[in-house]
Amino acid sequence: MARAAVAGALTAVLAGAGWLLPVSPAAAAGGPVPAEPRPTPSPTRTSAPAAPAATGSAGDEQRAAEYWLREYGFDEAWKVSRGAGVKVAVIDTGIDPGHPDLAGAVVGGTDVSGTGASNGAEPIGFEPEHGTMVATLLAGRGHDPASSSAPPSRGSGPGSGDRSAGIVGVAPQAQLLNVSAWVGDGNPGGRDIMDQIPAAVRWSVDHGARVINMSLTSTSTSWPRSWDDAFAYAEQKDVLVVAAAGNRAGGIGQVGAPATIPGVLTVGGLDRAGGASWDASAQGISIGVSAPSEDLVGGLPGGGYRTWSGTSAATPLISGLAALIRSRWPEMSAGEVANRIVSTARDKGAPGRDPIYGFGIVDAARALTAAVPPAASNPLGSVAEWIRIHRRANDPSITAPAPPPSRRTAQAVPVPAAPAPARPDFDGGVVPGLIVVGFGTVLAVIAAAAAMHLSALRRRR
C-alpha cells in the first residue's frame, strides 16, 4: 500500500482513540469517560472504559489492586526471575522517571518527535500520562509508604526492604529505555508518526533493548514500506517486539499495524473474569496471547495512580514476562521467547490459535517453569520472510533483509559436489546413429546377395 494511503488510515485513528490512549482529558480532570460498548469504529476521540481516578500513594491500596500478579502467575514466576539485566524499550508518550515507583528503573531514553526532552523524560502529546502508566505496570518497583518520593531500597525485588506501597510491575528488576513519540495529530515538532515509529524501533535496538513495548495500534492492517527495514532490523538483531491489539471502545474492531507485522507478539485483552474483553480488546488472526486488560492500575506523572483499561495496559504485562524469560535464559532467541509464552498459554475459545484469544491466556508461572521444546522458528512468523515474498513480488529491486538469527546450532550436513556432466551410453548421440547406419549397410549387402542369387537361378532355367 502506498505511504499516503496508509498514512491516511493511521491519521484517522490517531486523531481518535486508536492509539490506545485510554485516559482522556476528561478522565484526567475527573470527568466522565465513555463506557458503553461500541461495535464499530468512530473517527471521534474516545477512550477505553476507565474507573474513577485513585490519587495518592499511602498504604498498600495499589498493591492490593494488582490482581493480575496473583491470578496470572507472576508472583510464582518471580521465584525464578525478576527481569534483572534486561532492557525493555517503551515507545510511547514519554515516561516520568520521577514517579516514586520508577526510581532507578529508567536507564536511558530519547525523543523521536522533535518535541519532547532529548532523553524522553518529558511526557508529551494529548495523553502524556500514557507512557508512565505503561512503564509502572511493566517495571514498577513500589516504594516505601513512609515517603512517596523515596527510592526503593536495595535488594532482589518486591519483598526486600519496605516497598509495600505503590505498583510493582511484572518485571520489577528490568531496565527501561524511554522513547517518547508524539502520538496523534498536531505535533509541534512537525515529525510525522510514520517517521517516528521506525526511528524509535531502530534507536531501541541500537541501545540494547531485548524487548520493545508498543502500546499503540491503528485502523490499518497494512503498514508503510518505510517500516519494513526497522522491524526487520529488530528481528535480525534478536529483539522481540510486543504490540497491543487495540480496543473496540476506542474504535478498533480489528487488529491493526504494528500488531499485524509478522514476528510481532500481539496482545489481546481479557475482562476481570478472564474472558475476552468486549471494550478493552479487538480481534484478529495475528493475536498471539491474551492478558488482563480491565481494571489495571497505572502510575501518573508526578505521582498518583489511575485505574484504567485497554490492551495498552495488557501489553506491558507480556513485555515484562518476556523480560523475565530473557533474564532467566539470556541466550534464548526472541522467537523462542515468543514460543515459550504462547505455548504455555492456557487454551481458551476455539481449540488452538483463534482470533479472539490467540494461542490462549497468559500463564506466567508456566512460562518460567514448564519444559518447552525448542522452536524451529518464531511461531508468529518472520517479517524478513514476508518482505521477501510480498514486497519483492511487486518490486524485484528490493533487497530482502537477512533472516532472524537462531541460537540453536544445527549439525552440519556435508553437501556432495555435483558431478561433471557426462554423456551416458546410448543417450541419443552419435552411437545410436552409427548403429542405424551399420544395420542399414548389412541389410543392403544381404539384399544385394539375394538379388544375385535369384538372377543365377533364372539363368539356370
Automatic annotation (TrEMBL):
GO biological process: proteolysis
UniProt keyword terms in alphabetical order: Hydrolase, Membrane, Protease, Serine protease, Signal, Transmembrane, Transmembrane helix
UniProt feature, compositional bias: Low complexity: 43-59, 145-166
Source species of the chain: Tersicoccus phoenicis
Region (Disordered): 28-60, 141-166, 395-419
Stated name of the protein: Peptidase S8
PANTHER family the record matches: CEREVISIN-RELATED, PEPTIDASE S8
Family matches, as SUPFAM superfamilies: Subtilisin-like
